[in-house]
Design a protein that fits this description.
The complex is a heterotetramer, with two copies of chain A and two copies of chain B. Helices cover about 35% and strands about 20% of the residues of chain A. By secondary structure, chain A is an alpha/beta fold. Chain A folds into two domains: about 180 residues, Rossmann fold (3-Layer(aba) Sandwich); about 130 residues, 3-Layer(aba) Sandwich (Rossmann fold), CATH 3.40.50. Helices cover about 45% and strands about 10% of the residues of chain B. The chains are: A alpha/beta, B alpha/beta. Chains in contact: A-B, A-C, A-D, B-C, B-D, C-D. The complex binds thiamine diphosphate (2 copies) and magnesium ion (MG) (2 copies).
């Protein structure tokens, strides 16, 4: 895989992911891509733009509107030794494909005594903030994390979107790759070429000494904004786990050792969410590091309502994160 | 069908109201999007109005309807006040769902309008529930459920029609086959010519009609409703139709020009206008008046919406859970 | 509803649940029951034995083998004002009905602005320990808890199975009622008559001063056994939350105030599980009460394997719980 | 069909092996249950052996098979060594799935036996994947997938056959209609007479055969396999059959006596034995010898199992995730 170069250019998420797909398909004939509207049209998010033309209809194709069949095709093709990538148009639609993911893809390796690998990647946009209401705004990472056999990737930067997608496709297990719709227009300067961001390595997005904030996906950006607002008053360290399973606990512990304070932020519901899980792990591995109660700012106990006034109230805003930091640090 | 002149005019104006409402919403959304705002998804049913109006003409107020994310027409035709529709689509507390639902989730309990649905095909299983409730209670209410040509590829389609057929539930399953599911042609979703023919897999009738012809829809829906109300079980109706616009506002038009031309002369509202004129029910001036009345109604609804407050987040917890 | 009497008799879970259903159906004509094999045959677990005969085929009926349709029928019937109860034969099969539960039943009240109540109960057996392997042994409570709009009940005693089922059917929201298959042969002395155990009230199963163990469903019994083994050496307080949402945090905090130590035990996977969630809540509300790191003993990061030697290794055993208590108390 | 005498005898002994294996497993399980042990679920396919053996006779070693929880016969017929089957069902490290799968999850990568499945209907979508892989690679491998009359009520059935028909994937969908899903009669699962007729909804062939007649199964499966291998797309085959026992060991027999009598004289092994005798391929003594050989083979497999260790939990993490 060619290394990244020093030439830098502006890139948006969709193009970044499209380039990662393109490179993976060029490098390995076993990588195939399918889903609804992704062939001829290039995907409703333009994820697969140009790829059918380049790699042909056998490797990039449209399916019927049947997520269960799509997921089954993906898992079965992986069992046969291909390295399929599928797009689920919104992660919310995983609800109709859960069995093929959870009872099949995630379990077949175990059920076969380790005989079958299932190298497959499911790409799905997630998250609230686009006024798409209750059935197009979810972030279901907690379900997938609670499902042994799956890996879960939630990139926040354009650099990571490309590098982690490359890693996900290269992984030999089923990987849920969830990108946030509200990051659609993000633009970042990144290198040319192709690179890999390995699964399981957190990034320290901002160094600080007063408090450790763990935040991923869209919430990483909101946490950064909150930290910027507090600049000069509170020194905030921000850790972006980038992948939730595998999870880089060491980097979090290293930070908490320094700050003594832990705040986790995520937009999906609090109950049985990622925040509680990180609190559990940090308590188990570094309780003595915590100077005060670890906190989680997460989604309200509600489906996502439509009207902006309501939607903003159920998902953490910059002001919520800032307030939580201020309360903790006083 | 034996409609009075007034009924025919009302059906016409309902179709026009749906059309004008959708055009108006798109304008307002486009305006907001120009300002960098993203007001949500909007799926226009322009071109498909005859189906909603034709089916609803055969339903009683207490019959149940389950709709889709492309459901403004279904709601208006079932009798949802236009004020509630406009207010909901623009997120006001006075909307059909008090601003919690949005365009894809219009609900109105008072007319048994059981909601739009953002999950393709997901209305069909829900329809079993109201149909069963009617059977259990011994009422003769019918349930109507809409879905698209793409929806017929979902597992839910199969499970629901199968169970309805076995139980002889009073349901009419209405497939609005507008030839495309998002950008995907129906041939990628269905290997046979007519989705209606899938009824054979369940031993029920599967009539295929021109969904742009109000009277064809009326006759077929009428027969299916009678059958359902009479305890003879469900019907699958396929309505061939065409949406004027691409899937939603963020998808550019991509459908081949020759398809568009084929359907250009088959607009259901044009056909109905011609019918009213030819039958001597309304001349050009009367039509103009009807259209103007609709515009007035819509204008008032937009004003109502603009005067309405946004919902108060303090109420969320009570809206999520029942006491 | 008639109160419980003082007459006591031995009862098993299935009969207890059957009696609760019977009483609910006798009291309210809107209560209806359907699912696979539950009509003529009376249910593969015998849950509905005798009920079709008593209440007729309109109120108790067999469905096709279609969980998605069953769940849809349930949600739609609830919207129409009935109070449906369904059986899903194993909770594992919820994977094919997730959309109707999560995107429909759990969200319709919100999406309709509160217009529609959905009073419905889903009864499903859960859990490992019966050598039924990867697709018949799960406990998916964490998914349901991560889904706003749902309530989750996980009884551990025969008394609660009856009383909580009565409460679940009486609740005006969708309730997941999960009973553990390995408790099938449990037998308990209980009163005659009908009673209600309200949702949201934990039970202190055993009083103690050294450590608070929170455990539900089968794990409550294993925790009790571990505590019994340590009797005289360690004074263990055991709290059974009985319902996971609503969750009775107060009772847990009251106990931790006394013991200073918290151990949560559950058999479903650790990651994003109930344990982390309880640790999060206790940290938030009572961090200063904790004398040491709160711990969670949970399921191993694996689907449930078949062979007994493997199955026992992935789910907490009495010895695991005992060891965890000993380590914590030293 | 043009089988040699040896091939016919081998098909007969495979059927007998399946039958005897299942009887033996049930005995061992029953013994353990008497001791208060619960050794897991066991679903016997006794009575349905002609389907597995007939279909497999038309498959190549490199063709793919997806099975169900009632899949011992499918596995043995596809060529899974009996030692691996016995060891897996009793949880040994030497089993097909190293003791991780159990009776419902027999896997054997070396013969492209892609696993049993505990979720009704869930094999059908998986079958699309191997079929697609064959098309993509330009091999002419066929995929066969089994399911029951109850399985045909799952959404997965519809989605998978629909997609296979649209893509012309090389799949044969084999419905083993044994008239019951657990305790539920097929009439509660299917409103039409023949599940095979559902093929019409997908524009593919849907032959209905006597699943207890090996030769009918062979002919029909043979035609479907040729069609699939030739790139003409999938076939849905319905095999009418009857399982000798109730659904599984914990469900008592509940099926009406007259159904049982109807099927009593149609046992596939009896029919095959009669055929061998009538065709002069094997007389009574030869049959007795074949049966005895099977019993020997089985006895050896049971001994192999008893000598085999249980799996070591230390390996679990490596079995869950690939490196
Ligand atoms: C289960 C599911 N999959 C995908 C989508 C995304 N999606 C929304 S509408 C649509 C196309 C539906 O086509 P059709 O059923 O023909 O209805 P139409 O939009 O033409 O009215 C798709 C793919 C969804 N909402 N739900
Ligand atoms: C999705 C799902 N629902 C329910 C079950 C429980 N169950 C296992 S087998 C079975 C009956 C299946 O009947 P059929 O498809 O006719 O196959 P057969 O058992 O007769 O071979 C049921 C209900 C399951 N395993 N999966
Ligand atoms: Mg369409
Ligand atoms: Mg069967």
């Amino acid at each position: 895989m060619p290394a990244e170069t020093t030439v830098r250019r502006k890139l948006k998420p969709i193009v970044a992911m499209n380039e990662a797909l393109d490179a993976a398909m060029a490098a390995d004939d076993d990588v195939v891509l399918f889903g609804e509207d992704i062939g001829a049209y290039g995907g409703v998010w333009a994820l697969s733009k140009g790829l059918q033309k380049k790699y042909g209809e056998l490797r990039v194709f449209d399916t019927p509107l049947s997520e269960c069949a799509i997921m089954g095709t993906c898992a079965g093709a992986a069992m046969a030794g291909l390295r399929p990538v599928i797009e689920i148009m919104y992660v919310d639609f995983m609800t109709v494909a859960m069995d093929q993911l959870v009872n099949q893809a995630a379990k077949i390796r175990l059920m076969s005594g380790g005989a079958f690998d299932l190298p497959m990647t499911i790409i799905a946009p997630c998250g609230a903030g686009t006024s798409e209401a209750a059935q197009h705004s979810n972030s279901l990472e907690a379900w997938f994390l609670n499902t042994p056999g799956l890996k879960v990737v939630m990139p926040s930067t354009v650099y990571d979107m490309k590098g982690l997608l490359t890693a996900a496709i290269g992984d030999n297990n089923p990987v849920m790759y969830l990108w946030h719709k509200a990051l659609y227009d993000l633009e970042e300067e990144v290198p040319d070429g192709v690179w890999t961001v390995p699964l399981g390595e957190a990034a320290v997005r901002r160094e600080g000494g007063d408090i450790t904030v763990v935040a991923y996906s869209l919430m990483m950006h909101r946490a950064m904004a909150a930290a910027a607002e507090l600049d000069g008053r509170v020194s905030v360290e921000i850790i972006d786990p980038r992948t939730l399973h595998p999870f880089d606990l060491d980097t979090v512990l290293r930070s908490v050792r320094k700050t003594g304070r832990l705040l986790v932020v995520h937009e999906s519901p609090l109950r049985c969410g990622v925040g509680g899980d990180i609190v559990r792990r940090v308590c188990e591995a570094g309780f003595e590091l915590l100077q005060q109660a670890p906190q989680v700012v997460g989604g309200v106990d509600s489906p996502i309502p439509f009207s902006k006034s309501l939607e903003d109230a159920v998902v953490p805003q910059v002001s919520d994160i800032r307030a939580a930091i201020e309360t903790m640090v006083e | 069908m034996n409609f009075t002149a007034d009924e025919l005019k009302r059906m016409y104006t309902t179709m026009v109201l749906i059309r004008k409402f959708e055009q108006n919403s798109i304008e307002i959304f486009a305006e907001r999007m120009k300002r960098g705002d993203f007001p949500g998804a909007l799926h226009s049913s322009e071109g498909q109005e005859a189906i909603a109006v034709g089916v609803s003409s055969q339903l009683r107020p207490d019959d149940y309807v389950f709709s889709t994310y492309r459901g403004h027409g279904h709601a208006i035709a079932k009798g949802m006040p236009i004020n509630k529709v406009v207010a909901e689509v623009h997120g006001r507390a006075t909307g059909a769902s008090r601003g919690y639902g949005g365009s894809m989730h219009l609900f109105d309990k008072s007319i048994n309008f059981m909601g739009g649905n953002g999950i393709v095909g997901a209305g069909l299983p829900l329809a079993l529930g109201t149909a069963y409730a009617a059977v259990k209670r011994g009422t003769d209410q019918v349930t109507a459920v809409y879905f698209g040509d793409g929806g017929a590829s979902q597992g839910a389609f199969h499970e629901a029609i199968n169970m309805a057929a076995i139980k002889k539930y009073p349901i009419i399953f209405i497939c609005e086959n507008n030839q495309y599911a998002a950008t995907t042609h129906v041939s990628v979703n269905c290997p046979i010519e007519d989705i209606g023919d899938r009824a054979k897999a369940y031993g029920i009738p599967g009539p295929v009609v021109d969904g742009n012809n109000l009277f064809e829809v009326v006759d077929t829906a009428g027969a299916a409703v009678s059958r359902a109300r009479g305890g003879e079980g469900p019907t699958l109706i396929e309505c061939k139709t065409w949406r004027h616009r691409a899937h939603c506002m963020v998808i550019p038009e991509h459908r081949p020009g020759k398809d568009r031309e084929h359907w250009a002369n088959r607009d259901p509202i044009d056909q109905m206008r011609d019918h009213l004129t030819a039958a001597g029910i309304a001349d050009a001036a009367a039509i103009e008046q009807l259209d103007a009345d609709v515009q007035e109604q819509l204008k008032a609804a937009v004003a109502f919406m603009q005067d309405s407050p946004f919902p108060d987040p303090a109420e969320i917890a009570e809206v999520v859970y029942a006491g």
